[in-house]
Design brief:
10 strands; 23% strand; alpha/beta; binds adenosine-5'-diphosphate; 9 helices
Length: 260
């Protein structure tokens, strides 16, 4: 479970990235974060694994107050949180399987890393991860031979190889064409359902957010203006998130969960 309790983030230059955010995200949810560029989506995602430190409030992940973590404890905590970026962050001249295997590196002695000596079990596990995202047939290709969508699947396999309970994805489909973006979103959806991994991603394509996520969080100027199930996202909600129109009221509907 991820809990934001009155969380704010003010950058050193005074910019308010997040303002008084309160959220509870249960294990196994698939959450899409939507909002204009600069709204605070990336800040929200990156606070969870401490890529960005919050400046006020409390952020609790699986019972741990993340701001108390340091050194080894922080590294161990991060191992359970996968991170996917828009730019894939793969070693393009290396093979697909070697890229997946690199997620073992933090747990290996340096000399094994130096010689790339991965065990048979590690290799089998990496191949399984590639199979889960339907790209096993490319295991021995070089990454620079793949399409953008295939590269994002490899990045997803690398993340799965570290047994995450949470995957954070910062604009994972922003650089893909519409068809590949849909395919990668369906991979996220399948992984979420089959493996009960919590997925939090930010995305510009509202249609894909509504098609695949089960919950949508809309943010505007660092504040949550909508938080509720995907099927309750109306045009009014989108106007509040993107155009700054008044936030729709709850109309006494307890399921709507709209913040005022
Ligand atoms: P989004 O992901 O929705 O585009 P961000 O979370 O990247 O938004 O940014 C939220 C706000 O914080 C923006 O005003 C942005 O300019 C600002 N911001 C982001 N990173 C920094 C930083 N390192 N220093 C100062 N301001 C930042």
């Amino acid at each position: 479970m991820i809990e934001f309790k009155d969380v704010s983030k003010t950058y050193p230059n005074g910019t308010k990235g997040l303002q008084h955010v309160n959220l509870t995200i249960d294990q196994g949810e698939f959450v899409a974060i939507i909002g204009l560029s600069g709204a605070g989506k990336s800040t929200l995602i990156r606070t969870i694994n401490r890529m960005i430190d919050i400046t006020d409030g409390q952020l609790i992940v699986d019972g741990t107050d993340v701001m108390t973590l340091k050194g080894n404890a922080l590294r161990k905590f991060r191992r359970h949180i996968g991170m996917i970026f828009q730019s894939f962050n793969l070693v393009s001249r290396s093979s697909v399987i070697n890229n997946v295997l690199t997620s073992n590196v933090p747990d290996m002695p340096w000399y094994k890393v130096l010689f790339g000596s991965y065990s048979k079990d590690q290799k089998m596990k990496a191949l399984e991860a590639l199979d889960k995202v339907n790209i096993l047939d490319k295991a021995y290709n070089r990454c620079d031979e793949l399409s953008g969508g295939q590269m994002q699947r490899v990045a997803l396999a690398r993340t799965l190889n570290q047994n995450p309970s949470i995957i954070l994805a910062d604009e994972p489909v922003a650089s893909l064409d519409p068809i590949m973006a849909d395919v990668v979103m369906s991979d996220f959806s399948r992984i979420n359902k089959e493996m009960n991994i919590t997925i939090l991603l930010n995305i510009h394509h509202v249609d894909l957010a509504l098609k695949y996520a089960t919950r949508v969080i809309g943010i505007r100027a660092g504040k949550v203006v909508y938080d509720g199930p995907t099927d309750k996202v109306t045009q009014e909600v989108l106007d509040a998130v993107y155009n700054g129109k008044p936030v729709p009221t709850t109309d006494n509907d307890p399921d709507k969960k709209v913040e005022k």
